[in-house]
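Minutes, project check-in

Agenda point 3 was the complex the collaborators sent over. CS summarized: two entities, 229 residues total, and the question is how they sit relative to each other. Sequences were read into the notes so everyone works from the same version.
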Amino acid sequence: DGGITQSPKYLFRKEGQNVTLSCEQNLNHDAMYWYRQDPGQGLRLIYYSQIVNDFQKGDIAEGYSVSREKKESFPLTVTSAQKNPTAFYLCASSASLTSDTQYFGPGTRLTVL
Amino acid sequence: AQKITQTQPGMFVQEKEAVTLDCTYDTSDQSYGLFWYKQPSSGEMIFLIYQGSYDEQNATEGRYSLNFQKARKSANLVISASQLGDSAMYFCAMRSYNTNAGKSTFGDGTTLTVKP
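CS then shared the predicted structure for the full assembly.
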């Protein structure tokens, strides 16, 4: 089955710790994205990548970092510099940056204690 | 800058009736796409329908149709024959294909509740 996987579904971390969220896709898509969603709000773009070894900051990149060493993987690290990291994180991919459709993963709910 | 406005935080509809969810947008780009997504309580984002800025016909996908009025910069979602399973959060989004290629902007969503 083609799709996007995110792991884990729920993640708990202590304040001050870095944490890495996994995102893998087997759709052979060039573009991948990370979004953050806070309760009752829409999605906000953190980082996006149009091709391997290239990525761009989105609207709320501060306190986050990404890498794109393989086409199918786009991990997101939430660093201790992120002031309010508790949120729902969604990964998405599309064939290209200008494709009509983005496909979303199931999301990771991060809680920082 | 791109902006999406969804003015209805919550909507109720009777089962089997039609409902319209409002969405207005703001952009200076000429080439862009408009999207609607459904988000059930599980959190997954389900793509519903797409409308390109140059498409002359309103998009339709089964029970979903998009009422696109370019001059008014509105892209309302119409759900016909509502079902109990339609109860969810609905998001309007846009992507620019010019100056901000790849960046999507989402509205704050509308919570739809279908009553039996």
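Noted in discussion: Chain A touches chain B at residues 31, 33, 35, 40-45, 48, 50, 56, 58-59, 88, 90, 92, 97-98, 100-104, 106-107, 109 (CB under 8 Å).
Follow-up: revisit at the next meeting once the mutant set is ready.
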